[in-house]
Amino acid sequence: MTVRRYRSRGVLAVVLVATVLLVACGTTREPQTIEIVVPPGTADLLAAGELVDVMPTRIVMRAGDTLHIRNEDKAAHPVGPHMVKAEREVSFVYRTPGTYEGYCPLSKTERYVIYVEK
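RESULT FIELD:
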């Protein structure tokens, strides 16, 4: 009986460790970068009353992911929740899960939602 219990506990321990490793490996991924580029001439389009579709209306990220914005235009622009100066690049790492939403003139609906998941 002692040997059987030892084996049962050993098998159970191996199964538990394997399950934890599989679950952890299955849900873990490297942080990703989402890039948004504001093309040259965007300010001119906006001044002419054109709709601009640069910022996605919906972005889904995981905590630890980066939003990288490159503004190639001659004017500063609000891109989602971030103001980006002319001909500059900025990166923001989203560490806290949550929902970020608001007005963005560079989105086809003039609104954006960023979902940051665990």
